[in-house]
# Entry
Amino acid sequence: MSPAEIATLFSGHLLYGLLIGAVALFAASITESSATAAIVALAFTIGSWVLDFTIAGRPGWLEWFAHLSLTQVIRTFEQGLLSVSLVAGVVVAVCAFAALATVWLPPGIAVRQKLMRSALCVAAAAVALLAVTQIKASIDVTEDRRNSFPLADARQLAGLAEPLAISVHLAAEDPRYIDLQRNVLAKLERVMPRVSIRLASGRQSFASSAGDEAYGEIEYRYGSRSDTGRSTSPREILPLIYGLAGVSPPAPISSAEFPGYPLVTDGAFALLWFLAVLPILIVLAWWRSRRLPSNNQTFLREVVMNSSTKTLLIIAVSVVAVLLPAFAAPIKVDLTNETAGAEPKGLVPVVGVWRIENDGGKKLLAVDGRQWKEGQSSAGIADKARALYGERYAEFLDRVQAYAYYPYVVAKDVEDFKNGEITVRFEGLSGRIDQGAGILFNLKPNGDYLTIRANCLENNLVLWKFEKGRRSSVEWVRNTPTASRQWHDLKVRVAGNKVEGYLDGKLYLQHTLPQPVSGKIGLWSKADSYMHFDDFAVVASE
# Structure
């Protein structure tokens, strides 16, 4: 977290504390005892929490009323947004409660006079709050600009002068509307000079809107032009807005994107330290505390010569020798130095269109099935096959043509995977026939292989066998939730001839093969699937 983000969070909690203090001061001024004042202040605080939990997200005046919750005050600061109107509004509220306390605290003044002065304070505060709500300025202090569009898009949108009107046909409690509000609408309101958003469903609930054919549609009107979509992703909405405005999507500004913290650490040393080195040091310290030598030189001599110490060292070396094979460093395909728009260098595309794409400043591997044609192999497949299998490349090519319906890439740095884990993250973007993402393994020189794949359209996990030019299912697991346009974790664990398939950390598939696994590995897809892959890694074990 950056210093600016920490300072913003601290400021939010400070303002929250000042507001609670002002409320408590006002409560003390209108009650006769401190206990009663504490109860009033507590009721005010808990009441605001009730508002937040019961009517937050409701349309109309309920939505405005929910914004009065005290938890709403610090939520914006916690998200890394420094809102000028929110800061000014909290300051006005603090001053208003302090002024009310000043009115009610002095004794000997008629209640009617106090009420008149209180009314003036409330009216002045209301006018001030109405004025500060017109301030739209806010600052995204997060390092990764998670509350803003990429800098190039923000500049392009800020230059659109005509008004943009958006009508959303979704219920306020619909998760799609919540995603749309967080990922697109809130960012548009911050960056565009003239934008208006209307919840067309009004007071409809999620259940009552089920029969509405227009439900789920989002209408965009820019000037005299309009268009309709259903996506809640900025990747599809921003090009639509650019099309209405008659401008081209901007080129990404790579220098302005947040690079993250690409620190890759190896946990093998940590395991070695905690399972071997640290226990030895603890035992030595215990032995030292029970038998103190005359001086440090004597201690060193005793440690070296003592037979029990020798035995301990022999045991430690044996433990390390046994554990070290289990600490094999993972092999991870690093895409940071790849070229966007080009084929990956660490993977060999065999079938289909595979390339590196830049998504929000992060490089990902994409298989673009939108350009897929049945029977189409990757460019330069003969040379790639020769690099993979040498003189046996011709036999491999025969199988490639038979399996050309299924795009896949092969990892260069793994010659023969037999035991261990293969993991990858994937996201389904589009595809009418399929949205398949799989881990390929047991790839033989003749082109036969196995794959465990998930499918965003079918919500199942399947172990497929590709052998002698034919595909057949080995194990089929249904009801595995795999939503499109969401990232999922896929893992294959192999131990000899035993195979396990995991989706989003849950074990779904188990199967025992007739023969142990042995061969190359890679990533797999199908037909017109347009998918993103990331964090492709393998940990081999003996």
